[in-house]
Amino acid sequence: MRSLLYSLLAVSLFMLLVGCGGSSRHTVVTDEDGSMLGLVVTPEPQALGIDRGDDFYLDWPAGYAPPREFTVRLRQVDTDATTEAVYTDLHTISTGHYRLSPTSTLPSGTFLLLTITSDREAVRAMYLTDDDTFGVTREAKPGEEGQAEHTVRTR
Description:
There is one protein chain. With 155 residues, this protein is mainly β. The longest helix has 17 residues, at 2-18. It has one helix spanning 2-18; strands at 26-29, 40-42, 48-50, 56-59, 69-77, 83-85, 88-94, 97-102, 111-117, 122-129. Strands 1, 3, 5, 6, 9 and 10 form a 6-stranded mixed sheet that branches.
């Protein structure tokens, strides 16, 4: 009995250290015959400072239908244009409404590329995650170069 308990504990610890699943790519097969037309992505594409715990939503509003098959990927993009997969889970809320959830908290101050592709079309959205130091102001110390405040006058 004790060895079974230790085995379960070891497996649980391994899963905690390695992470719990997710995928770097999701393929969705629908019963629809639509297109990317009308697709609404949330958060709004090109958003800066998105919360590092945000989920992404893909919605085709009434009057629009998703393609018969599409693929969803979320990638982290470095400043040297290299990319790394972000592992996610894709949840079907209903046909035409999907939620993409990262399996872990997104890194701080990182560019993300969300790509949704069908056999003929692609939609891409870039994001910048919230930086822990974003918006923090630094007080000038006595003797530092520069000024703490500047006045600009225009005509």
